[in-house]
Amino acid sequence: MKKIGVITDSHSGISQKEAKELGILVLPMPFYFDETCYYEDVDLTREEFFQKLDSGCKVATSQPSPAEVMKLWDQGLEQFGQIVYIPISSGLSGSCAAALALAQEPQYEGKVFVVDNGRVSTPLHRSVLDALELIEEGYDASEIKSILEKSRDKMVIYVGVETLEHLKRGGRISPATAALGTVLNIKPVLKFDVGTLDTYKKCHGSARARKAMLEAMQHDLTTKFREWQEKGEVYLLAASGSSEEATEEWLREIQEAFPGMEVMCDNLSLGVSCHIGQGGLGIGCSCRPKRG
Q: Are 7 and 261 within 8 A, CB to CB?
């Protein structure tokens, strides 16, 4: 039996296939279309998801049940002595707080360590890779939890939203604002930072939104994350809820803006796409966690 394993949820953008390749487990997150429950990457493809979303079906995200979480933890503990569980940020979902409570149960105490480091999407994926590196370096599960949580503010992600419809449905903007924004071709850029999601900027058109995201990222790398950037310890990240062609074009723009930096790109999770719709593009970064 291996000493430490890693479990995350599908908000990380890690597919079940990728999870097997990494040697980790991924909890599929539930969501509802017109009262019918689906699980990401299990019983609904991305194509089917966006077809339903665009058809006007009522969509809602949900938390996994305690039984579903415990079932996966038990599966993990059959393979590993301890588990590092890295779920979606507690600032975006109650599932993290529920997991923290479950980890205090006698059968999991000292065996499951829940990390709340304020991540979702590609930054959450990056945290999983950080955890695997820390395991290889010999850190125990408790130390890994501490290291990851201490670096919670060493990340940011910007997401350009193509349609205002789903922000309206979710109550983030009013119907009147959505209608006016559509007429004026307003494309909001959202900023995810330390567990919160807020509007960063409102741009006229998609091209200006992408430009605003690139400029914001360049500014962050020369200010907030300068220390890590100078040491070559910044991971450049991208995410997409758009077509393959649009994603490839976005990656080209990123690579032109940041020559020499590798970019890890994931599909935006279906849970995130529930709130922003199809066509979203994102850029962000995560810094290598400090050891010790």
A: no
Pair type for strands 80-86 and 112-114:
parallel
CA-nearest of 10, 69, 66, 57 to 32 is 57
Alpha carbon distance 255, 268 (integer Å): 19
The secondary element (H helix, E strand) that includes residue 11 is none
Strands 36-39 and 30-33: antiparallel
The letter for the amino acid at 60 is: A
Is residue 187 within 8 Å of residue 178, measured between CB atoms? no
Task: Give the relative orientation of helices 95-102 and 66-79 as an angle to the nearest 10 degrees.
Answer: 60
Strand 36-39 vs strand 59-61: parallel, antiparallel, or unpaired?
A: unpaired
Q: pLDDT 10s digit of each residue in the chain, 292 long?
A: 579 999 999 999 999 999 999 999 999 999 888 889 999 888 888 888 888 887 878 888 888 999 999 999 999 999 999 999 999 988 778 889 999 999 999 999 999 999 999 898 999 999 999 999 999 999 999 999 999 999 999 999 998 887 655 554 555 545 544 444 454 466 888 888 876 777 888 888 899 999 999 999 999 999 999 999 999 999 999 999 888 999 999 999 999 999 999 999 999 888 778 777 778 899 999 999 998 7
Contact 213, 207 (CB under 8 A): no
257's CB contacts (< 8 A; 6+ apart) are: 214, 217, 218
Enclosing H/E stretch for 271: helix 270-276
Residue 68: what are its φ and ψ, rounded to 5°? -70, -40
DSSP label of 157: E
> CA 256, CA 261: separation in Å to the nearest integer?
10
Q: Using CA atoms, how far apart are residues 43 and 132, in angstroms rounded to an integer?
A: 28
